[in-house]
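Teaching note: in complex prediction, the entire set of molecules is handled at once rather than each chain in isolation. The prompt given to students was simply: 'Predict the structure of this complex.' The entities are:
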Amino acid sequence: MDVIDLRILLAPAISFGCAVLIFLLGARARWRRVLALGAAVTKFIVILSLLPGSLAGKVYVFEVLEFLPGVGISFRADALGMFFALVSSTLWVLTTVYAIGYMKGRHARVRFFGFFALCVSTTVGIAFAENLLTLFLFYEMLTICTYPLVVHDETPEALRAGRKYLAYTLLGGAALLLGMILVQSLAGTLSFSHAGVLPAEAGSGALLATFVTLIGGFGVKAAIMPLHGWLPAAMVAPTPVSALLHAVAVVKAGVFGILRVVHNIFGVDLLAQLGYASWLAWVAAFTIVAASLIALAQDNLKRRLAYSTISQLSYIVLGAALLTPFAALAAVVHIANQAFAKITMFFVAGAIERSTGKTQVHQLAGIGRTMPWTMAAFTIAALSFIGVPLFAGFVTKWYLSLGALQAGAWWFVLLMILSALLNAAYWLPIVYLAWFRTPAAESAPIHEAEALLLVPTLVAAAYVLLLGISMQVSWLPFSLAQAAVRFVAGL
Amino acid sequence: MELWLPLAAAVPLVAGALTPAIARRHPGLARPWALAVAAWVLAAAVQLTRRVVLEGPFSYPLGGWARPYGIELRFDEFSAVAVVIAMVAGLVLVYSGPYMRLALRATRLPWYYSLLLINLGGLVGFVTTGDLFNLFVFMEIVSVSSYALVAVAGGRIAPLAAFKYLMAGAVSSALILFCIGVLHALTGTLNMADIAARLATAEAPAPILLALAGLTAGLLVKSALFPMHAWLPDAHASAPSPVSAMLSALVVKVGVFGLLRVYPMFAAVDVVRLAPMYEILAWLGALSIVAGALLALFQQDIKLMLAYSTISNIGYIVLGIGLANELGMTGAGIHIANHAIIKATLFLAAGAIIHQTGRRTLHALRGVGHVMPWTCLALAVGVFSIVGLPPTVGFPGKWYLALGALEAGRPGFAVVLLAGAVLIFVYYIRILNAFYFRSPSEVGMLSVREAPVAMLLPVLVLAALCLAGGLLGRWPAMLIGPAIARLPGGG
Amino acid sequence: MVGLWLNIDYAAFVALFCIGLYVVLAKQNLIKKLLGLNIMETAVFAFIVTSGMVDFGAAPIISDDTTGPFASPLPHALILTGIVVALSITALALSLIVEIYRRCGTIEADELKGVE
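The expected output is the structure of the full assembly:
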C-alpha cells in the first residue's frame, strides 16, 4: 500500500534546516549544541514514528517535483529505506553527543556541525529515494558535504586526503551518471520497482555496460577493491567524522546503492539469468580476505579499523550478489550490525586518542585497567566482528552462510570461517594487550573517557549486544530487516 | 499589441543611441535610464513568450511590406531566449554601477551604458527576425558593440584582445555575408522561410553546398569552437567583468543560435545532404568539450579559466546539434539558455571577488571564502551548476545530450560528455579548495569586505536562478519542443 | 540572375576575397591586416552587386520613358548596409590600433605576442 506522508520529506528537511540555522547562528556554542541535538532527536522521532507502518507493510511516498519530463525527485520509504534511515538517525544522535565532547576546543566548529547536519540530511535522502535520479542527487550532495569534514584540519595531509577522496568519488559519480542514463535509455524509467526495471531483451552489451557502470559507481563508496583507496586516506579526518561518515553513512550509501541496483533495477531473476552477479560475489570475497590481511599489518588503530570496514562492507555486497533471500537478509542486517560495532570501535579510538594521545596499537598495553568501560565496549564490538554467538556479527555470518548454501555455493561458508579467523587475528591481540599486559610507565595519569564520549560508546555497544540476542522480537531491527527483504525479494 | 515585437529590439537600440545625450549634464542618469529600458525589454520578452506559448509562432512585417518584399520579424519558441537575454542584461546593468564607477571616468560612463543597450538591442533583434540579411545586420550590431565593450576599460592588453576579437569576428562576418549573397543570387529572396522553399527546387548543388559550408564555418568561428577559439580567452578575460558576463553568457551564443536559424533553410534540398555537416559538428563539438576543459586546467587566472570553460560548453551545444535527433537538439537548445545563467553567475561572482581584493590568480585569492561568504556561496552554486550536478540548471542540458547520444547509437559521445564534466569539476574544485580550505597567502586578505549590495544582489539572484532553473528544468524543454520538431533532424 | 557559375566576375571576386584573407593572416602589421579585411569586404560587396546584374539591364530608377529589364536594386541596398558596417568596424579597429600603439609601443603582431 502506498501512503502519502509528509514525514518522509520532513526527515531530511529537518536536518537541512538545522544546518542552515547552524551556519547562520552557530557562533554561540550553546545555540549550536541545542540545534544539533534537537535536530538529531527530532529526526529520530519522526523516522521512528514511521516504523509501525513500515512493519505492517505500508510504503510511504511523497513526490516532490517532476524535474524533467518523466523524471523527478520523489521519495518512497519502503522497508529497506526505512531500515537504512533508522540506522543512520539512531547513530546520528549518538555521534552528535560524541562530537560535542570530542570537538571541544577545536577550530571551525560552525562549519563542522553545519556540514555534519547536511551530511545526515543527504543520507536520509538517499535512504528514501524513489528513483535513481533522487538517489544520485543526494549521493553527489553527500560527496560534496563530506569534503569539508574530511579536510577539516586543513593540514597538507588532510588536503591531500581530501583530493584523493574527491577524485575517487567524482569518478564514481560520473560512472553512476552514465549508468543512470543507460537505464533511462533502456527502460524508459528510473524508478525502483520490485522485480527490476530493465528488460531482458536489451542487448547483453548494453546490460553489461549498465551493470558495470552502476556497480562501479556505487562500488567506490562501498570500497570494493580496487576502488577502496580513498578510505584509509580519509581517516585523517576527526574521529566523529570517521565514525559516522566513513563507517556508517558514506560507505553504507554505497552498499545501499548496490542493494537497490541488484534488487530494484536489475532484479534478482534478470541477474541470475545474466550471470554477472557471480563475478561480483568473487570480487566481494576477494575484498573480504585481502582487506583483512592488510588490516593485520596495520599498527595505526584507525587504519586497522578502516581496512576492517572495507572487509566488512563486502559482506553486504556478497550478500547482495548471492541473490538468495537469506543472503539478502544477511546483507540488510549487516548494515546495522556493522554500523553499530564499527562506530563503537571508532568512538573508542577517539576516546583513547583524546585521553592519552595514543594512536598506535602497540601503545595500548594495559589500557584496559585505566579505561575499563571504554575497552569493555571495544571488546564487545570485537567479539561481534569475530562472529561469536550472542553478538550481532554472528547473525550476519549465520544468515550469509545459509544464503550461500541456498545458492548452492558452499565454498562461501568456508569464506565465512576464514574471515572469522582473520578477524580474530587482528582484534584479539588488541583485546589481549589492553586487558592482560602491564602498561609501560606513563608520564601523565590516564583517566577514563569523559561522559560525553563514554555514554555514546556504551550505548552503541549495548546495541551490538541487543542486535545479537533479539532476533525474534518484533519492533527491533531484525524484523524490520525481514520486512525489507520481503519487499526487495518480492516474497 | 502588435508592436511589441518590433519595439522589443528597436527600443533598446534607440535608447542606447540617446543615452549620451540624455546623460550629458548628469552622467549618473545613464544607469537608471539603461535599467529602465532593460526592465521594459524584459516585460516585452515575457509578453511575447506568453503569446508564443498560447498561439504558436507569429510574425510582424516591418513597414507593412509583406514578405518577400519586406523584412519579416518572427517570434517562435526559440526566440523565448530573449527573456534570458533581458534578465542577464538587466542584472549586468545593476552590477555595473559600483564596478564601472571605479573603472571608468564619470564622463565616459554614459558611453558604456549606451554600448550595453545597443548590445542588448542587437541580441533581442537577432533572435526575433525571420529575414536572413536582418539576421546579419543584428549580428553585426552585437559584434561591433562587443568589440568596443571589450576595450572600454581594462588593462594593458584589452585593446589588443579587442582587436583580435574584431579581426576574427569581421573575417567570419565577411564570409557569412558572402554566403548570404550566394543564397540571394540562387533564390532571389532574403526571407528564410522563402529561401527554404525555393532552394528545394534549385538544381545546382555546388553553390548551395558552398553556402552551407561557408555559413557553418563563419558561425562556428563566431561561437569559438575549437580550433577556431583563439580569440575568445583573451577577449573574455581582459574585458571588465560585467562585459565578460555578457560576452560569455550571451554574445558567444550568437554563433550557435545562428546555426539553429540557418540550417532549416537547407532542410528540403535534395541535392545537398545535411548529414555530413551534422557529423562534422558532432566531432568538433566533442573535441571542443575535451580541449576546452583540458586548456582550462592549466590556468591560474580565474577569468581565463572561466573563458576556457565557455569553449567547452559551446562544444556541448554544438555536439547536441550535431547528434541530429530530438533529444540531442533539445539538450543543445536548453543549454544555450542554461549556460547563459550559469556563466553570468560565475563571471559576476568572480568579478566581485577580483573587484574587492584586486587579485585574479588562485594563489593570491586563497582564503577569500571566509571574508566574502555570500559571493563565494554564489560562486559555489555556479560551480556545481556548470559541472551539471542535479538539481542545478546545468543538469537538464547534459541529461538530454547524453540520452540523445545513446539514442543516436553513439555511446562514445556520452562518455566524452561525462568525461568533460569530470574534468571541469577537477579544476573548479581547485577554485573552491583555494577559497575555503587554504589559509590566505596575502596579508591584505583579512581586511577584505563583502561586495557592495549593487554587486552582491545580482550575483545572488543569478545563483538562485541556477537552482530554480534546475528544479523547473522541464519547462524550457517543453517550451522549445515544437521548435525542435521543426528543425531538420529534430522531428 | 543566376548566371553561369563559371562566370569570370564571380571567380574574380572569390579570388579577391582569398587575397584579402591571405593578407589578414600573413601580414604582421596591424594596419595591413585591417587593409586585408577591407579587401575581403570589398570583394563580398562587389560579388553581391554583380549578382544583381541583368543582361542589358538598365539602372533601377523609374522615370517616364523607362522600360524593362532593370538590374535588381535589392543587392544595392544590401551592400549599402554592409558598407556602413564595414566602415564602423574599420573606424573602431583604427582607434584600437592607436590605443595599442599608445600602450605597447608597437603595432607589429609578432612583437605584440611578447608583450602579453
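Point out the following to students. Residues 276-491 of chain A form one domain. Chain A has a mean pLDDT of 82.
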